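Q: For a teaching handout, I want to show students what a protein-ligand complex looks like in token form. Below are the inputs, and the small molecule is iron/sulfur cluster. Please produce the holo structure.
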Amino acid sequence: MSTRFRRTWGRWLALAALALAGFAPVPLQAAGSGVSGTQTSRVPLPNVSDAKGEHCVMPTEWMRKNHMELLLHHRMTAVHEGDNQAADKFSIINCVNCHASAKDNSVAGPGDFCQSCHAYAAVKITCFQCHSSKPSGAPPAFHPVVPQGPVDKTSSATVMRYQAFHGRMPNLDAKLSAKDLAGVMR
Amino acid sequence: MSGFDTYRRRFLGGVLGVGATAALPAGLLFWQTAEGDVEDGPPASGKVRWGMLVDTTKCSTGCDACVRGCDQENGLSGNTSPTSPQWIRKVQVTNPRTDYSFSLPMMCQHCEEPPCVDVCPTGASFRRADGIVLVDRHLCIGCRYCMMACPYKARSFIHHPVTDQLPEVPRGIGCVESCSFCVQRIDAGKRTTACQDACNAEGHQAIYFGDLKDPNSDISKRLASYGGQEVLASLDLHTGVRYQGI
Ligand code: SF4
Ligand code: SF4
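A: Here is the structure, written as tokens, with iron/sulfur cluster included.
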């Protein structure tokens, strides 16, 4: 390899590095701090703060990377296997219930939770061509703001958690099994 | 192994893979193992076959309560233009020889051997384990072969964008749809359909819904005592909807 070739090559590399540094997108973490609508670049940062309840059904970082996998999985279990969507804490219904904005009661309008991040990432959302982008009216059936206590079907906290998760009262005549309490106990 | 088993394995192996498992809270794993059987309605199972019985002698000419009930339950507009989706229609039938005339509701007959499923090129049109024939709108490409194949003209195509869908009934432009036996109710553990409720509310009691495989269900007992005919029975599609008095 000639010296001249190496020099040219080096110049190209330097140029490429400059270009990369210049056009590197603002890392998403900056948006994760809960600040919404801050304009620190040409692109408006996504609004990730619209949410009711204490925290997401999964850690935020995990959700950011994997929510599409959960949705893909649940579309199979919901449509083909008949899992009840309203009572499933990972269903898109409950995502919308929690993340709908106070502004327009939706996740898909300009600046709303889903739409703003997808606009930022330049990924088209087609979910809401069919799915409702508005909450179902029922309260979110997950992470109820009640203290976690011992599993005791006579304790009102357990009954409240059960009711919040399943959308109905537990059958108090029957013994509560571990299965009944899946999702109620976290 | 079905496609979904393969799919499920890939999901569990990928998302809940060895590396990721350690980082997950116990809740998700618990949910994965208990999935499907903790909620109000059990998942679709081959142990039941949902069916409907329509008593045409009780069905009243001119009444369209069932149609309105369906529209309301499933978020349909109620328009009847040629391009408006209709899941259930009232049909007036007259025998030209005797002039005997009666009315009946027609909807997807939830065939045991559904031609719509046979022709679907993408696997979108499918029959659930419990006998309900549905369109998986995630897979439907809107080719409308199934509409041509259906001998009962039960399916509709959504031509226009839909807004304000009901959360439990997602539906949108470019897909084919038809009566789902109110699948969102069944999966939530309810055991009546909207058309049945509407008919009963009008005081006609012409529609019965239930499990054809359970000999003690109301519908099975009625079929055993009074019989019930399939429309176009000669096609051998073994429909889930039966009629009395036709
Ligand atoms: S009635 Fe038509 S749409 Fe319904 S299952 Fe039979 S062929 Fe399919
Ligand atoms: S319109 Fe959709 S459901 Fe019907 S045959 Fe085509 S892909 Fe299948």
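A: Two things your students might notice: The pocket of iron/sulfur cluster (ligand 1) is lined by residues B 108-111, 114-116, 133, 150, 152, 154-155, 178 (CB under 6 Å). Chain A touches chain B through 43 residues (CB under 8 Å).
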